[in-house]
Write a structure and sequence with these properties.
This protein is mainly beta. It contains three helices and 17 strands. The strands form three sheets. It has a seven-stranded antiparallel sheet with strand order 1-2-13-12-14-10-11, covered by helices on one side. A hairpin with a 2-residue loop joins strand 7 and strand 8. The N and C termini lie far apart (45 Å). It comes from Qipengyuania aquimaris. This is Phosphodiester glycosidase domain-containing protein. Pfam families: NAGPA.
């Protein structure tokens, strides 16, 4: 399975939660080798048109001298869903296109959420509104997605989980309301993935999601290149995540209307959408 390959560029953080420069960057494997595939054109740039007084669900933080953005979804306050494109249409391929189609009302934040093929469609399990758009992928192969164990982030209502793919296959029989498969797992039952070194040579902008014991979902995107090990440590040591899943690297993007951050750059695929349950501030 070929993934997207785009040219490497660092994102620059000039102030708290600014829109980083959306230059194309290179997706690489966990071992630091680049994945070869044709270079797509970067998505069109855009900016949020909504100025909101709603408190941001995201915060800027420095961890081990690297700038990260941490966005928190709480079951009592948020709903989580997945999207790929308009009903019956092609994938959005950018948060800019998604923002134009959806609008910012009631949105806490959105982020790219899983790996995909050249057409932008997921290469693993993917569920939108209880409709399964792609089946569970248990194949072996090259690249981050196939670094076993990989895993699935899924949920229904207020119950959200991350499980390894084997655990999901063996124990989850009911279709969730949302789900996305990616890989590798970063944290498994409170321990870092055994094949992730503390600080390998690969340094790229990356994002992932983790779950804590309180059932909260932590979404993290780096604002500068970092290693897999550092991202995994942040989930384990700072967020106390029991399980965490790598979502993607160097196509990573965030839309946070509260701070008018709308990342642009390389084409993306699946998108996770976190909405506020109380939208009275938008009325």
């Amino acid at each position: 399975m070929k993934y997207v390959l785009v040219a490497l560029s660092a994102l620059i953080l000039s102030s708290c939660e600014p829109p980083p420069a959306g230059e194309p960057v290179t997706r690489t494997r966990i071992d630091g080798q680049a994945e070869a595939s044709p270079s797509p054109s970067p998505s069109a740039s855009g900016a949020s048109s909504v100025t909101s007084q709603v408190e941001s669900a995201c915060r800027a933080i420095i961890f081990e001298d690297t700038s990260l953005t941490h966005c928190l979804a709480v079951p009592s306050r948020h709903r989580i869903a997945m999207t790929l494109g308009p009903d019956g249409g092609d994938p959005y391929r950018s948060l800019t296109a998604f923002s134009r189609a959806r609008g910012a009302s009631g949105l806490a934040f959105a982020m790219n959420a899983g790996m995909y093929g050249e057409d932008g469609r997921p290469i693993g399990y993917f569920v939108v509104n209880s409709q399964r758009l792609a089946t569970l992928n248990t194949n072996d192969g090259d690249g981050n997605f196939h670094m076993k164990p990989n895993g699935v982030f899924f949920g229904t209502g207020d119950q959200w989980e991350i499980r390894t793919t084997d655990d999901f296959l063996a124990n989850v029989s009911d279709r969730p309301e949302f789900g996305t498969q990616s890989g590798p797992m970063l944290v498994i039952d409170g321990e870092i993935h055994p094949e992730i070194t503390r600080d390998g040579p690969s340094r790229f902008v990356r994002n992932g999601v983790g779950m804590d014991e309180r059932g909260r979902a932590h979404f993290v995107i780096s604002n500068a290149p970092l290693s897999f090990g550092k991202l995994a440590r942040f989930f384990k040591d700072e967020l106390n995540a029991t399980d965490a899943l790598f979502l993607d690297g160097n196509v990573s993007a965030l839309w946070n209307p509260a701070t008018e951050r709308l990342d642009t750059g390389a084409p993306i695929g699946p998108i996770v959408v976190v909405e506020r349950k109380d939208t009275s501030d938008d009325e």
